[in-house]
Protein backbone atom coordinates (compact mmCIF):
# COMPACT_ATOMS: atom_id res chain seq x y z
CA UNK A 1 0.00 0.00 0.00
CA UNK A 2 1.34 3.41 -0.99
CA UNK A 3 -0.39 6.01 1.19
CA UNK A 4 -0.24 9.79 1.05
CA UNK A 5 -1.06 11.69 4.25
CA UNK A 6 -2.05 15.34 3.96
CA UNK A 7 -1.66 17.36 7.16
CA UNK A 8 1.01 14.91 8.29
CA UNK A 9 2.61 17.28 10.80
CA UNK A 10 -0.51 17.74 12.96
CA UNK A 11 -1.41 15.74 16.05
CA UNK A 12 -3.59 13.27 14.14
CA UNK A 13 -1.43 13.22 11.02
CA UNK A 14 1.68 12.20 12.94
CA UNK A 15 -0.13 9.25 14.50
CA UNK A 16 -1.48 8.19 11.10
CA UNK A 17 2.01 8.30 9.63
CA UNK A 18 3.57 6.25 12.43
CA UNK A 19 0.67 3.78 12.46
CA UNK A 20 0.84 3.31 8.69
CA UNK A 21 4.57 2.63 8.86
CA UNK A 22 3.95 0.07 11.61
CA UNK A 23 1.52 -1.67 9.24
CA UNK A 24 4.17 -1.89 6.55
CA UNK A 25 2.84 0.82 4.23
CA UNK A 26 4.94 3.11 2.09
CA UNK A 27 3.99 6.60 3.25
CA UNK A 28 4.33 10.06 1.74
CA UNK A 29 3.88 12.81 4.33
CA UNK A 30 2.66 16.19 3.06
CA UNK A 31 2.52 19.41 5.09
CA UNK A 32 4.02 22.87 5.01
CA UNK A 33 6.49 21.96 7.76
CA UNK A 34 7.58 18.38 8.39
CA UNK A 35 10.05 18.85 11.25
CA UNK A 36 9.92 16.12 13.86
CA UNK A 37 8.59 13.31 11.69
CA UNK A 38 10.64 10.11 12.04
CA UNK A 39 13.36 9.00 9.69
CA UNK A 40 12.19 5.75 8.10
CA UNK A 41 13.08 3.93 4.87
CA UNK A 42 9.39 3.74 3.90
CA UNK A 43 8.65 7.42 4.63
CA UNK A 44 9.00 10.19 2.03
CA UNK A 45 8.70 13.81 3.17
CA UNK A 46 7.10 16.25 0.72
CA UNK A 47 6.83 19.83 2.02
CA UNK A 48 3.85 21.47 0.31
CA UNK A 49 1.04 23.89 1.06
CA UNK A 50 -2.36 22.39 0.19
CA UNK A 51 -3.76 25.90 -0.25
CA UNK A 52 -1.37 26.37 -3.16
CA UNK A 53 -2.84 23.30 -4.90
CA UNK A 54 -2.06 22.82 -8.56
CA UNK A 55 0.68 20.84 -10.21
CA UNK A 56 2.91 20.21 -7.14
CA UNK A 57 0.17 18.32 -5.29
CA UNK A 58 -0.80 16.36 -8.39
CA UNK A 59 2.81 15.32 -8.99
CA UNK A 60 3.18 14.24 -5.35
CA UNK A 61 -0.02 12.17 -5.53
CA UNK A 62 0.91 10.20 -8.66
CA UNK A 63 1.52 6.52 -7.98
CA UNK A 64 -0.26 6.27 -4.64
CA UNK A 65 -3.05 3.83 -3.81
CA UNK A 66 -4.93 5.97 -1.29
CA UNK A 67 -4.88 9.19 0.70
CA UNK A 68 -5.82 10.31 4.20
CA UNK A 69 -6.43 14.01 4.75
CA UNK A 70 -5.93 15.26 8.30
CA UNK A 71 -5.56 18.91 7.36
CA UNK A 72 -7.10 21.29 9.84
CA UNK A 73 -6.91 24.39 12.00
CA UNK A 74 -7.35 25.26 15.66
CA UNK A 75 -8.43 28.82 14.83
CA UNK A 76 -12.07 29.92 14.97
CA UNK A 77 -11.73 31.30 11.45
CA UNK A 78 -9.86 28.68 9.42
CA UNK A 79 -9.44 30.95 6.36
CA UNK A 80 -10.49 28.23 3.96
CA UNK A 81 -8.06 25.55 5.10
CA UNK A 82 -10.82 22.92 4.96
CA UNK A 83 -12.74 24.06 1.88
CA UNK A 84 -9.86 25.33 -0.27
CA UNK A 85 -7.48 22.69 1.00
CA UNK A 86 -10.09 19.98 0.47
CA UNK A 87 -10.70 21.12 -3.09
CA UNK A 88 -6.96 21.09 -3.79
CA UNK A 89 -6.63 17.55 -2.40
CA UNK A 90 -9.63 16.26 -4.37
CA UNK A 91 -8.40 17.83 -7.61
CA UNK A 92 -4.87 16.48 -7.15
CA UNK A 93 -6.10 12.95 -6.44
CA UNK A 94 -8.54 12.91 -9.35
CA UNK A 95 -5.87 14.20 -11.73
CA UNK A 96 -3.41 11.60 -10.42
CA UNK A 97 -6.04 8.83 -10.65
CA UNK A 98 -5.87 8.02 -6.93
CA UNK A 99 -9.37 6.78 -6.07
CA UNK A 100 -9.49 6.26 -2.29
CA UNK A 101 -9.73 9.27 0.05
CA UNK A 102 -10.45 9.31 3.78
CA UNK A 103 -10.99 12.78 5.25
CA UNK A 104 -11.06 13.92 8.87
CA UNK A 105 -14.01 16.24 9.47
CA UNK A 106 -15.91 16.73 12.78
CA UNK A 107 -19.10 15.65 14.48
CA UNK A 108 -19.92 19.33 15.00
CA UNK A 109 -20.65 19.73 11.29
CA UNK A 110 -24.19 18.57 12.05
CA UNK A 111 -24.76 21.35 14.57
CA UNK A 112 -28.42 20.45 15.19
CA UNK A 113 -27.74 16.75 15.71
CA UNK A 114 -29.67 15.79 18.87
CA UNK A 115 -26.90 13.34 19.75
CA UNK A 116 -24.50 16.23 20.41
CA UNK A 117 -24.29 17.45 24.01
CA UNK A 118 -26.52 20.49 24.53
CA UNK A 119 -23.58 22.76 25.39
CA UNK A 120 -21.84 21.84 22.14
CA UNK A 121 -24.95 22.63 20.07
CA UNK A 122 -25.06 26.01 21.80
CA UNK A 123 -21.37 26.77 21.39
CA UNK A 124 -21.13 26.11 17.64
CA UNK A 125 -23.30 29.00 16.37
CA UNK A 126 -21.93 31.38 19.01
CA UNK A 127 -18.20 30.78 18.65
CA UNK A 128 -17.42 28.26 15.91
CA UNK A 129 -19.70 29.17 13.02
CA UNK A 130 -16.91 29.93 10.51
CA UNK A 131 -14.95 26.81 11.42
CA UNK A 132 -17.83 24.39 10.91
CA UNK A 133 -19.18 26.16 7.86
CA UNK A 134 -15.78 25.69 6.21
CA UNK A 135 -15.92 21.99 7.12
CA UNK A 136 -19.43 21.70 5.65
CA UNK A 137 -18.19 23.14 2.36
CA UNK A 138 -15.28 20.68 2.41
CA UNK A 139 -17.66 17.77 2.93
CA UNK A 140 -19.80 18.90 -0.02
CA UNK A 141 -16.70 19.06 -2.20
CA UNK A 142 -15.64 15.55 -1.22
CA UNK A 143 -19.13 14.12 -1.76
CA UNK A 144 -19.31 15.70 -5.22
CA UNK A 145 -15.99 14.20 -6.29
CA UNK A 146 -15.43 11.08 -8.37
CA UNK A 147 -13.44 9.53 -5.54
CA UNK A 148 -14.21 6.60 -3.26
CA UNK A 149 -14.50 8.76 -0.14
CA UNK A 150 -15.17 8.45 3.57
CA UNK A 151 -15.81 11.45 5.84
CA UNK A 152 -14.73 10.60 9.38
CA UNK A 153 -16.29 12.83 12.05
CA UNK A 154 -14.57 12.55 15.44
CA UNK A 155 -15.61 14.24 18.65
CA UNK A 156 -13.36 16.73 20.47
CA UNK A 157 -9.86 15.31 20.13
CA UNK A 158 -7.59 14.58 23.08
CA UNK A 159 -4.04 13.25 23.41
CA UNK A 160 -4.99 10.31 25.64
CA UNK A 161 -4.01 6.72 24.72
CA UNK A 162 -6.14 4.60 22.43
CA UNK A 163 -8.88 2.56 24.12
CA UNK A 164 -10.61 0.85 21.19
CA UNK A 165 -13.93 1.33 23.01
CA UNK A 166 -15.37 4.27 21.10
CA UNK A 167 -18.85 4.29 19.55
CA UNK A 168 -19.60 4.83 15.85
CA UNK A 169 -22.81 6.07 14.21
CA UNK A 170 -23.39 6.69 10.50
CA UNK A 171 -23.88 10.40 9.91
CA UNK A 172 -24.91 11.25 13.47
CA UNK A 173 -23.26 11.71 16.82
CA UNK A 174 -23.39 8.79 19.28
CA UNK A 175 -25.88 10.04 21.93
CA UNK A 176 -24.16 12.33 24.44
CA UNK A 177 -20.66 11.61 23.16
CA UNK A 178 -18.23 14.50 22.91
CA UNK A 179 -14.61 13.28 23.01
CA UNK A 180 -12.21 10.93 21.25
CA UNK A 181 -8.46 10.40 21.46
CA UNK A 182 -6.34 11.11 18.42
CA UNK A 183 -4.83 7.65 18.87
CA UNK A 184 -8.24 5.99 18.49
CA UNK A 185 -9.01 8.22 15.51
CA UNK A 186 -5.74 7.30 13.78
CA UNK A 187 -6.40 3.60 14.30
CA UNK A 188 -9.91 3.96 12.86
CA UNK A 189 -8.62 5.82 9.80
CA UNK A 190 -6.09 3.09 9.06
CA UNK A 191 -8.58 0.29 9.72
CA UNK A 192 -10.99 1.97 7.30
CA UNK A 193 -8.22 2.12 4.73
CA UNK A 194 -7.89 -1.65 5.04
CA UNK A 195 -11.62 -2.53 5.02
CA UNK A 196 -13.53 0.30 3.25
CA UNK A 197 -16.45 -0.56 5.52
CA UNK A 198 -17.61 3.08 5.54
CA UNK A 199 -17.20 3.90 1.84
CA UNK A 200 -19.41 6.86 0.81
CA UNK A 201 -20.47 7.37 4.45
CA UNK A 202 -19.78 9.70 7.37
CA UNK A 203 -18.94 7.61 10.45
CA UNK A 204 -19.08 9.71 13.61
CA UNK A 205 -16.86 8.61 16.52
CA UNK A 206 -17.01 9.39 20.24
CA UNK A 207 -16.67 7.57 23.55
UniProtKB/TrEMBL annotation:
<protein>
    <submittedName>
        <fullName>Putative NADH-flavin reductase</fullName>
    </submittedName>
</protein>
<dbReference type="InterPro" id="IPR016040">
    <property type="entry name" value="NAD(P)-bd_dom"/>
</dbReference>
<feature type="domain" description="NAD(P)-binding">
    <location>
        <begin position="7"/>
        <end position="194"/>
    </location>
</feature>
<dbReference type="InterPro" id="IPR036291">
    <property type="entry name" value="NAD(P)-bd_dom_sf"/>
</dbReference>
<dbReference type="Pfam" id="PF13460">
    <property type="entry name" value="NAD_binding_10"/>
</dbReference>
Amino acid sequence: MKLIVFGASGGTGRLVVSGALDRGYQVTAVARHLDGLPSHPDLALQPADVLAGGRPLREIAVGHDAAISAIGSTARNPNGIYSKGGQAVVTALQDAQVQRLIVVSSGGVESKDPGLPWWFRLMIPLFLRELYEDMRVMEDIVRSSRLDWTLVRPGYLTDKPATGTFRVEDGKNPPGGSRLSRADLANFLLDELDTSRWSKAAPTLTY
